[in-house]
Design a protein that fits this description.
Order of helices and strands: EEHEHEHEHEHEHE
Radius of gyration: 16 Å
Oligomer: single chain
Largest sheet: 8 strands, mixed
Shape: globular
Strand content: 15-25%
Bound molecules: S-adenosylmethionine
Number of domains: 1
Structural class: alpha/beta
CATH class: Alpha Beta
Distance between the termini: 29 Å
Length: 207
């Protein structure tokens, strides 16, 4: 995989990914345990809480912006969280190549960049193709958790879900202003938007 590994936070400096690494992503942790992945983990606030509370699980935070990611890397190291690794890369690169099918218990996607402009819609993370990939990567009964403050994005999310085949999923829950998984914990943006009084939309899909 790439060239540069920085201490506990794995920095993939090169875009080239060695495909022979496929299937072994979970081996970056000292212990094999159920795996959760946050896509676009930002400063890592949510995963730092969750990894501390669930030492019997492993967590990956993926974000392509090092200036956010490095805060999480530093804190995970300070707290001795050996079950939390941050990866500096694009989700679209890592999931298809380094995450085997039926290997992830939970995907967390919180406040993804909505790419408002129409010409940027294709950059949106949650396309029908990406949905199918996430679905395939989940274990049976695995969860996909989404939160957004953007009503249009939530509608686009559901449209992509239908296009990908919503019958793939065995269940779906939706709430407003009420986190579904880990209600006591907030991401950085979640806390900021809640303080600002914005409506927050949550969706949970179960494989
Ligand atoms: C609005 S922030 C939300 C951060 C965090 N989830 C939160 O709720 O506080 C969106 C984050 O997703 C990251 N991001 C967007 N698209 C991504 C992609 N395709 N792969 C990895 N990270 C991505 C951005 O760098 C940014 O840190």
């Amino acid at each position: 995989m790439g060239r540069t590994f920085a201490a506990r936070g794995v920095r993939i400096e090169e875009r080239r990914i060695d495909r022979t690494f496929a299937g072994a992503i979970a081996d970056l942790f000292p212990t094999r345990q159920p795996l959760e992945i946050e896509i676009g983990s930002g400063k890592g606030r949510f995963l730092l809480h969750r990894a501390q509370a669930h030492r019997d699980r492993n967590f990956f935070g993926i974000d392509y912006r090092w200036r956010f990611l490095k805060e999480g890397v530093l804190r995970a190291e300070q707290r001795g969280l050996t079950n939390l690794i941050f990866l500096k890369t694009e989700a679209e690169e890592i999931i298809p190549h380094l995450v085997p099918p039926a290997s992830v218990e939970v995907f967390h996607i919180y406040f993804p960049d909505p790419w408002h402009k129409k010409k940027h819609h294709k950059r949106r993370l949650l396309t029908p193709e990406f949905f199918k990939l996430l679905h395939a990567s989940l274990v049976p009964g695995g969860l996909l958790e989404l939160a957004t403050d953007n009503f249009d994005y939530m509608i686009a999310f559901k449209a992509a879900l239908v296009e990908a085949g919503d019958t793939l999923w065995s269940g779906m829950r939706e709430t407003r202003n009420e986190r579904i998984l880990d209600p006591g914990v907030q991401t950085h943006f979640e806390a900021k938007y809640a303080r600002a009084g914005r409506d927050l939309y949550y969706i949970e899909l179960c494989k």
